[in-house]
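2024-03-11 09:14:02 INFO worker-7 job=invfold-0412 stage=load source=structure_tokens
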């Protein structure tokens, strides 16, 4: 049983049992992650009729995503997992978008693009073969007019499904794949940084 959380583009929380998504709540609002995340977690557990004690794995979407929103979801996933003494599995958020497209029947090369703000975008490229989607490049950050792979089918995602994120985690487990990233994929430095040492003033 999985609890999956993604805040890389909006906020999405889901409970899944294997391939079956039992409950999912999502919003495309990119400004209120912290305000809605707790209510969403409680809500999907209630919708699914699943107590927290039945969750065996917590899945965290690692982005790419803007710093403030992304860290809310990852912190919530880690805190929830700590509270119930369960492991956290990290998944690239774009992989969930690619899996949804593959599940809907798409095949061939695919480019997943999400908003990075500051007039930039995040992108990842995939090969959707008959077996599963395979990421071939990215995640990366660039200006909108610098996005590569113009010949690929492209999807500009405004939401990452936590249910699909859980299915990616299951697919990785079944294939014995290890985590690629254990740290958030901000792909740029945060706005707030620690100040450097004071400059010496020459008298």
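2024-03-11 09:14:09 INFO worker-7 stage=emit residues=203
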């Amino acid at each position: 049983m999985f609890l999956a959380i993604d805040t890389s583009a909006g906020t999405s929380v889901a409970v899944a049992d294997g391939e079956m998504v039992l409950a999912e709540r999502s919003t495309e609002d990119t400004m209120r992650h912290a305000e809605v995340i707790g209510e969403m977690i409680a809500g999907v557990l209630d919708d699914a009729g699943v107590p927290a004690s039945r969750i065996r794995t917590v899945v965290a979407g690692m982005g790419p995503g803007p710093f403030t929103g992304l860290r809310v979801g990852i912190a919530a996933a880690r805190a929830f997992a700590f509270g119930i003494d369960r492991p956290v599995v990290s998944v690239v958020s774009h992989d969930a978008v690619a899996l949804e497209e593959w599940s809907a029947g798409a095949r061939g090369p695919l480019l997943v693009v999400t908003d990075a703000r500051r007039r930039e975008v995040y992108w990842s490229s995939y090969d959707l073969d008959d077996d599963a989607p395979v990421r071939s490049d990215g995640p990366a950050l660039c200006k909108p007019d610098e996005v590569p792979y113009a010949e690929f089918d492209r999807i500009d995602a405004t939401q990452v499904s936590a249910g699909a994120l859980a299915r990616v985690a299951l697919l990785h487990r079944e294939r014995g794949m290890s985590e690629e990233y254990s740290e958030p994929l901000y792909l740029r430095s945060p706005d707030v940084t620690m100040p450097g040492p004071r400059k010496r003033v020459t008298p």
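2024-03-11 09:14:09 INFO worker-7 stage=report msg="The first strand starts at residue 2 and ends at 6."
2024-03-11 09:14:10 INFO worker-7 job finished
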